[in-house]
Structure formats: structure tokens, C-alpha cells
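Hey everyone, long-time lurker, first post.

I ran two proteins through the pipeline my lab uses and got sequence/structure pairs for each. Pasting them in order. The first:
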Amino acid sequence: MPPIPLGLYVHIPWCVRKCPYCDFNSHGAEGTLPEQAYVSALLADLEQDLPRVEGRTVQTVFIGGGTPSLFGPEAIHHLLEGIASRLPLATDAEITLEANPGTAESGKFRGFREAGVNRLSIGVQSFNDRHLHSLGRIHDGQEAIRAAEIAHAAGFENFNLDLMFGLPQQSREEALEDIRIALALNPTHLSFYQLTLEPNTLFHKYPPPLPGDETLWEMQETCQALLYEHGFRQYEVSAYAREDFNTVELNCSTPFPWQGDKSAGLPICTAQPPAGGWTGIVQSERWDRGKILETPAQPRDSAQGSGVLPPPCPPPSRHRYLRKSESTRKSTPSPLQGEGWDGGRDSLNPEAPPYRRRSTPTLTLPLPGGGDLCRYPRPSRGRGLNSTVLHEGLRCRHNLNYWRFGDYLGIGAGAHGKLTDTSGTISRSWKIRHPQRYLETAGTPACIGACDRVSQRDLPVEFLMNHLRLRQGFAEAIFGERTGLALDDLEPGLSECLAVGLLEKCGSFIRCTDKGWNFLDNVLERFLKTSN
């Protein structure tokens, strides 16, 4: 059985001011923050958990809050250095830090980058000053724009912007304007979610006037359409990632069987390559859509991969590249040919000189079912194209691990963790919530709020609550790998949801239909009912 991925969540609970809609474990800062003492407490907390993850490698680190960017770069450096000295980190570990525009300073962002943070998540919520005021945010729209600009200047090529819709008295056009501004700031990822009135918040006690259901639906649909038009693909209920140079989508010039849906998910190709070879759609820094014309007959430079490939796009009627940049021939279509795709010629104008793409090493990936290998160029920026990057692109890998029912440690006041032991038993734990009490007890059993085993009866619903948030759904094999149960343990809820069109099977994948996606709570209620 493949090892279950492991992430690390670090909670820093202080904010400048508690927002009226926030139900997270966050506390308004009073006076000077105990940065050094809290980092020491976090590392003591981690040491206490180490025996539970001995020999395992951390793939992702997420520093959340609260507002972690209230801490200085020195504290974050000490924290990450302490984590790396206690736990093995993957060489390409994704390390995210949440930041708010009100705390954005160019010196801080550069310092976070130097400390080892390679991804930011900036809590913008809106660029409209009136809506920011109604949400109790401490920044204005210009500060939000400036925060994204500072992130770019500090060297963050990968950052997320948090945006809300359905704000008090918000119009559809105002929601669209927030998206337009966000897109202009060139993030790699957007979290776009509806404001909800959560229990134990000021907004729940004193509800503000919110848009009606019809307006909310229009906001969501029009904003999603605008995101799609600009290359952002929804892969989770509220998460959108930009298709970029790390995204490779494979297609075939002739029909062949897939395990999975061609429009969503991560299908596995089970066919032998056709006589004409494999055809691929590649998106990169310089090129928009096109065709891979070379398929080597013999494996060369084989890469290790999981055998799961991103979903294919429907092939265009003519396989062409559209040149994105470089002053001459910017919009002329052309296929690319040859090693590294140098020397591609314009199929509509054979007399035109060949395009020259900068030389890049190529990577070969074995296709499931045997046969030839597909080749495509390695991205020129950042780390090389490995199996993880190929599959995830610019999605948030840490959150994907949650949704795929992976394991994670949680350190910090109120932090939650989920771990699977060697016998396959899954347990959830959490640390005490109040910051001062946490500081006093970190590293001792008194710091642990509880540690409970997840019962076999609850496992199916827990798995589905996470996996069905993803557009791709889940592969049948993953259910067994992550829960130790058989697919029959999802019955009779699974058959019922399939029968009424809330779920669908695509080869070995199970996912929500559009109907099920829009009524996910109803899907989960059916499984809760049958499990009880």
C-alpha cells in the first residue's frame, strides 16, 4: 500500500483585531506578541508528537492563524529551522504562510521568503473599501493591491488571494470587480467562497443584510465564468488554480479507454498507444495550446510517476500553438517540432521562418498500460517537472492532502491533527485553544485537548466529507488505501446517490455530478443516514 502523505499545520492565533464573521481560533493581539516564547512552545509541541510520525517525511507545511504575518521573519526562520531539524522535509516541500494586507511590508515579505516560505496566502476578502469596512477588516483596497505587488517584488511566484462573495449589500457587479482586480494582480491561486454566518460569531448574533439566493447564484456563476476565461480552474468547492507552465494535459488523436472522466479528475489511461502516437496539450510560460509531435519509440530518461495523469482537454480541430510573447508573430498559430520543440514551423504559412523556443530539457513519463512514452518540456522556472508538480500544478498541495484524507500533524493553540498508525487505525487530536494556557503547557500531556480514534462506522462519511469537495472525486482504490475499508462499506448510500444522479462513476472514479456538487450537503446526509 502506498505511504499516506504527511503534512504539518502550524497555528499562530493572534490577529490585530477579531473579524465579526470569523469562527477560527483567533484572538486580538494585546501589547507585544510573545514571538520567541511561542515558537519555542511550537517546537516543544512538535517534539512531543514526533514518536507518532517516526520515519515519515513532511510534504507540506502550512502556517495559519490568526495572522501569522504579525510575527517577524526572524521568528518564522527560527520556526522553520526548528521544524527541519526535527522532521525530514521533502526537498520540494510546499511551505505556505498566511498574511493579511494590513501587515504587509516589503521587508517582511522578503524576510519570509529568505526564511524558507515559498507560498503566501493573502487574506484580501474584497478590494471594495465599503465591504472591507463591513467585514471589520483593518486594510483598505489599495493596501490589498499593494500586498500582492509586494509579494511579487519579494520573489513569491506562487501566492493565493482569499476573496469572499455574498457580502452585506454586495451587488453582482461589485463581486465581478473584485475578481477583475484580483486577476490583474496575477496570483497563481484564488480561494473564492461565500460569506456564511457561523455560530459563535458576531455576525451570527447580529446578522447583516446579505444578498438573496438568486443574486448569490448569479454572483457565483458569473465570477466562475470570468475565472475560467482567465485560465483558473476550479478543483475544489472554493479553490481555483491557474493553469500554468507546470500543467500538462494529455490527449489522444484517436479514441481510447480512460478510467475517469475526460473533463474532470485524474483519469488513468489503460490503452496501448495508437499507431500515430500520443498527442498532448501543453501550457507553459510562452506557449498556449498545441501538439506534441514527437513520441520516442524507446524509453529515455524515464521519470518515476504514480501513473495518474491529469485529465485531457478536447483536441482542437487543428493542433496549433499560439505564440504568447516576443514581438514578432505574436498571434500566428504554429505546431512545434523536434527535441525541445525548437524549429516548429507555421502550418498555415510553410514559407515562414521557423519559430525558435529557448532550449529546455525534456522529461519522459511512462504511460500506464505500457508502450511508448510521452515527452514534453520541463518548465524553465523553479523546480523541475516531477510527478507531484505534474499532477498538482499550482493547486494548494497542503489543502489537497486534507481533502484526499491524508495525514497531518497540528501544532499550536487549537491546532488539529489526523494520523494513521502502522495498524491502519486513524486518530484525530487537537491542542488546547487558549494561547496563554498553550504557552504554559506546550510539550506536556496537558497541552493535548483530546486524542480520539475514528470509528469504522464514521470513517466512510469522514472520507467523503473531504474527497467529494474535489471536482475529480476519488479513485475507488484510494478509499481502501486511506480507510482500510472495502467499497461495499459505502453502501447503501453509494447506490442511492448513483441512482438519483447525485454521484456518478467514471471508470474507477466516483465523483459528484453537477447536481450533487450543488447539493453536497444532501449527498453527505444520505451517507450519514445510512451509516447511522
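...and the second, right after it:
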Amino acid sequence: MFSLYWSLPCAFLFLLAQSKSFLFFILSNPLSFNLNSVLQLFSHSIDIGSVLFLFLGFSFYGELCFKKRVQFENNLERFLFTSLIGEALVAVFILFFGILGFFSPWFFWTLFFFLLLGAFFKRQILIEAVSYFFKNIKRKVTLLEFLLFAILSAALLRGLIASGALPTDWDSLAYHLAFPKLFLEEGRFFRIPWAMNAHYPLNTEMIYTFILAMRGDLACHWLNFFHAILLLALIAYLVRVYFIHFLQNSSIKSSNSIRSTLESYSSSHFLAALLAVAIFSVQPVFQRDLGNASTDFPVAFACMLSFFAMIKAQTLEDRRISNSWLFLAGICSGIAMCIKLTGIWFVLSLLTYNLFCFRSSSSFLSYLFGTILFGFPWYLKNFIVTGNPIWPYLGEWFWASPIEIDAWQRMRLSVTEGVEKNFFNWITIPFQMIFKNKAFSYDSHYLLIPFLMILSLKFSLLRSFTRIEKSLLFIFILFSTFWFWSYQSWRYLLPLAGFIALLIAVWSEELFQLKKWKGIVGGILIFSFVPIAQLSINNEAFIFFNLKSKSFPHVSAKQRYLEFSLGAPYKLSEVANEILPKNAKVLFFRDVRGYYLNRSYAWGDPLNPGVFSYTELKNSFELYQKLKSLGFTHILYNPTIGNYKGDLSYYARSNQMMEEVLKNYCLPIFQYHGMGIFEINPEHSVAGGSGDGVERHLPFF
């Protein structure tokens, strides 16, 4: 027998062994941990505590809406649902006041005070959670349970250290954090016409705006980290308490019957729950989103809660209680739509499925009304701003210009992954993702291969699929169909990845009962944990503990980490902040990561032509005139970003025009590794736009 608390130091030692550069550094420089490291850890603690109390505050205000309408079984179930609902309400509240131009310190401090007040009334949940943790961390477990908990601890510890590192993720620097920073600089929510991504649902970005104003970008990382924790808690809760029971029982007469069942199942299925969250947590698709400010965990959490509420409603025979849960399922679906457009795929999947499974029109309307109620605000915002509620999808249906339609198709073709869209690839997509796994990021085969193999064993040996299993598999097919024909990216299947890990655990527990197949199932499960070898804290640990590089003792840990992680793009922004005038207006060409640039800017690369269209420009002189008429004073040029797919002639022509502008109408004021900062039409450049054909270069730094 083993105690769980020993798994925590084992997990940390494993990460150290995986991170040889960091391990060598701390062994050779034991005095590198100093007062600055202690202060840095204290700052992380404040960030973690602040975000934790925010979730308690979200839960308090979310529960105000459903205090008597939905009967929750326990505090964990209540907290999972009410925290999501409260967070969505606060996001809409921030949006409303942002439109009115009230983004100011007093507004955010007032909001923070009320959320802390709500957290005070929900403090009992935190007390119970801490008590539960310390009570169970000392429990005696089997060797297998110990190993699974150690793997889970290593995965979360790696995510925790990554969350304490500064933002370097592309999406965060391009929009998830960059847009909130712009909102705060303007003091209001405003339209960003040059960024197609700015028209997406911005539910989570509103919370990021609030947290960025109060605590900074690292606190935004912790918000995402807590969403991952809630998602894992929900998976474990479904496996251990609900899902296996639903697989064995087709209907429950009342909510009281569930409560009695919870008591009998409270100590069972611990291994299956641990297996589900351990498998999920080590997957690259899970680890990729830890340590940055993204929207994938929030949308996956909302989708899974929506499905949970739906299956619970379908197993309840009491029509009134059932409709209440369907209404709650609709609310969670509406919130998923407000976080990310991929939430629409899940809603369409549930709607299609429910057309065949709901027992009455009132049941269907309960779900649909909840979805519309919470999904309406953000899609109304999109319609008002762009004329298209689901911008930029289906632009031809909503009077988008040909240029906008072409731009969206070009972007989708260039940045998505996957295989050619045809009927054969559609029906064989799981195998395409396995045998052509290089076409998809995040090593999807580590999750798909065990899932398909255990599914085959389940079908051939047990041949018993309950209604809930059939429901989930049907939704899998619908969701992946929308994904395949719309926007192929393995990361966008994160909501399904959680369900896949859940089913792997549930079916494995069933198959373990067949003793002669136990070894085969165990071997299949081992393949799921291969990605654990990729876990490392080599880079992030230095900035997490605020450790200066021995080779660069005069460079701050922050600056060294960003220069090492981002390289020249960060160097360009850093130099631009020093040498460009405050009133400079910068055009990004090829690179769009503007978070670290403290000057007015806009995207103007061929893939994101939000400022103007390259197809409408005849030559470089027209491009130069366009830039001058729009008030741009400088160009931040990064030719290393590229290799776009699709219309290669379009990109080649755009690049050629920009290179001619840089050559004939601009002065390079800083160059670094092939990148540069250029001043448009300086005083000693050729007037009239003819150009003298002379390249002007400063020495490389």
C-alpha cells in the first residue's frame, strides 16, 4: 500500500529528471534561489489566490440565478455549474460597461470587490475542498493508483510552472491578450476592424480584460489553468459518480434516487476516474493549452457540462425536474457558443441528436431557450458590428464582400491542419489522423489509437452499448463532421478529447472484469501515456522562479526568457518601444504578435489584410500611398513568418510589393536577423514615389 502524498515529490523529481538543463543549473548554482525567487513565488501565490476567489465569486452570482430552479446533488456539482454561469454573466456585464466606455480602475476595483464579497459567502466550498484534499492525500492506495496519481501530478505541476511563465503563445500575443490590452488602453470596448479574429465571441477575453487590469498577464494564465482543473474535476466526477451509473441504469425516477446512488458510489470507481484524468492530462492537446491565455479549456468545460446536464435530464422521469436540467444544458451550450465559435458545432450536434430523443416539444424548447438566452448577446454584437452573427463563417449568406470572403478562405486554408475534404477522408478521419498524424499537431494518435482499440474490444467482447454510450458516439460523429468540413485542427477537438479519455476509462474498467483480457487492455492503456516523456520544465522554470541566466547576469530573468523563447520578434517590439515616437503607427507585415509592442499598430500582412486588400493594389507605389493615407509611420517586417498554403502567387505578389516599398520608400532604422523596423517616407527619401533604387541598411545588431 502507498500513500498518495508521496506521489507529489515523485512527480517533481520526474520533471527535474526530464529537464536536464534546469537540473544542471540549480545543482551548479544553488545560490540562484534568493530573495527574488521568494518574492516571485509570493506573487504567484497572490495571482492564484485572486483567481481562485474570482471563481468563488462567479459561483455565488451564478447560483443567484438558479437557487430554486435546479436541485444540485452536492457542492461540487453546484460549483461546477454556477461558476461557469457566473463567469458568463460577469463577462456580459464587462462587455456592457466596456461599450459605454467605463473601463477604468474604479470600475474594475468595484467589480473585484463585489466578486470578493460573493467569494466570502461561498467560502465553505473552499474549506470543504481543502479538507477533502488533505483527508484523501493521506489515503492508502494500490501501486497502480499511486502511479496514476503521480502521472497526473506531474502533468499538472508542469502546467502550473508553465502558467507562471510570461506569455509566449502565438494566439495569446496576437489576440487573446493583445485585444484586452488594447481595450484597456482605449478605456472601452471598441471594434478592431483590422483583425478578423476580433469579431469572434469574446466571452473569455472580457474576463482576461478584467484580470489583466487587476493583476496582469500571469493571472490570465492562472484563469486558464483553473479552467483545466475544473474540466478534469468534471471528468472525474462523471466517471466516478454518474457516468458508470448511467451506463447501468436507463432511467431514474427522481433526483432523490440519484442522491441515494451517490452515497453508494462515493467510494467506488476511484481507479477509473484517476485513469481518465491521468490519460487526458498528459496528452499534447491538453498540455499545449496550459501556460497560456486561451479559450479551449473554457469551451471544453462548457460543452461537457452541457452534455452532463442533458443526459441527467434524460434519465429523470419527473418531467418538471427534467426540463429544468434541459434548460441548464441549454445555458451551458449557449455559454460554449459565447466562448468560441466551435461551440456552435457542439450545439448543432446536441440539437440534431435531441430532435430524435427529446420526449416532448417542451423538452426541446427548454434546451433551445437556454441556448438562445445565453448565446444571444455575443452574436447580436457580431451582427451589429459586421452584419453577420457568426462572422466570418458563411459570409456569402450575410452580404460579405468578395474580398472578405476570399480573405477568410485564405486564412482558413493557410492555418488549418488535416487532410483534403472529400467523402472518403470524412468517413475515415480517425484513421487519417492516425496514419497521417504529421498532418495534425499535438500527436492525436496517442489518444485515438487506444480509444479505437478499446472500442473494438468493447464491441466484440461485450456487445452492450447503453443509450448514453450510443448518444455520446452519435454526438462524436456529428461534432467531428462539422469540424472536418469547417475548420480542421486537432486542438479544436479538445471537447471530444475529454469524452474520449472518459470512455477509455469506463470501458477499460468493464473489460478488466474479463481477466484474460486484462493484460491486453493494460498494454493498450500504456500507449496512452507515451506523451509523458514530452513533459519538461526546462525553459519555464527559470522565469517561474525568477532565476537569472549565468551567461547573462545583467539581463533580467523576464527579458532573457522572452528573448530566448520568442527571439527576434520580441527584440523588434522591445527596440520599437525604445526608439519609436509615442505617436508612431506601426503596420505589422507577416507577423501579427503585437502584445509586447507599446505603440499603435494594425495587422497588414497578406494573410490578415484587415487594413486594406493587396488584391486591389496595382503596384508598390499604390501600396505606399495607401500606407501614407492611413497614417502609418513605420513597418515592422518579419519575413521569417510565411510558407502559407493556397494561392502562392497572391503571397508572392504581396511580398514583392512590400519589399519594393521597403526598398524605395522606407528607411531601415533597425535590423535584426533578417527582420527590421522601417520608417515610411523619411525626410531624405525620394519624394514623388519614384525611388532611387538604392537599398539603405544599418549595421546588424
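Reply from user beta_strand_b:
Welcome! Quick read of the second one: Residues 129 and 135 are 10 Å apart (CA to CA). The first helix runs from residue 7 to 18.
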